[in-house]
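INFO  loader      accepted 1 record
INFO  loader      residues=182
INFO  predictor   begin
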Amino acid sequence: MAGNRVVSGNRVSTTDENPLPPRLDLDPRRHETDLLRNHGHDVLNPALPDDDFAAAVRIAQAEIDQHHPDVLVGSSRGGAVAMNIDSGATPLVLLCPAWKRWGTATIVKPGTVILHSRADDVVPFADSEELARNSGLPASVLIAVGSDHRLADRVPLAVMLMACERAAQVRGQAKEGRGFHD
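INFO  predictor   done
INFO  writer      dumping tokens
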């Protein structure tokens, strides 16, 4: 598979060997960005202000418009940011999205994958169940994984990596006109 470029919050990095299509991570957590980089993904990580959601959305939109990522990843508040930008055909991978706390978006597009822990004590798992229902998406888009809000353990990180790589693969096939099936 060709490489992925990944956009994620304070650092901008590119790989010289096998550059991968872009992925945008809107809530940079070191373990996620390191995992993606260690698997050959280029992670672009825009600095998003904590105190101004509208500014965070504007900054993220500018990054999307400039880098045209193949996958957009948002965690917690970053998930809400991802839901409130125009990401076009770029698939979303959302980790415990806090969509009820920030922004106005109440649905996500087809192709979105949501990872959430049933034990999350910050954003209720039921919020992600509601998001999938609101969006008219099958329950299978919501993957219950992890033991807390951070999803920082080995299994949730592996599931995130697989979701990102699958989304990038599907996006690449669509760009090539091969559709969404292998």
